[in-house]
Amino acid sequence: MPKPTSINLHQKSRILEIEFDDGAAYKYSCEFLRVYSPSAEVTGHGPGEEVLQVGKEGVNIKAIEPVGHYAVKLVFDDQHDSGLYSWQYLYDLGAHYEEKWQNYLARLKEAGVKHKEIAN
Q1: Is the pTM of this model over 0.90?
Q2: Nearby residues of 56 by Cβ (< 8 Å), 6 or more positions away
Q3: pLDDT tens digits, residue range 62-98?
Q4: Which domains does the chain have, with CATH numbers?
Q5: Nearest Cα residue to 18 out of 68, 84, 69, 72
């Protein structure tokens, strides 16, 4: 499993950049990471129990805390801090970013929620 060689948060643009030791590099918006948090608050406690996250367009990360040698805890400025982002999970999110982002936007639309683009 690839491991990060660098993790850089750009708070002004709300982008987290991660480079992995296999050469892969991914950029994640803070909103994307927030709505795909691996916490029970977002994923529920089983299949079909996912909770659609809305109104997270302007969310930012205020802290990144290491968890052993396998994950980080992201602390968001909306007080969400209960998800542990393993290296595997972050790698998978990066590899499937566009597909997952489009899925999220489609779920918002299905729910009748407008997504507001936030200017940087």
Answers
A1: yes
A2: 31, 34, 35, 78
A3: 999 999 999 999 999 999 999 999 999 999 999 999 9
A4: 4-110 (3.30.2020.30)
A5: 72
Q: What is the dihedral of CA 64, 9, 81, 35, to 10 degrees?
A: -150
How many residues can be counted in the chain? Answer: 120
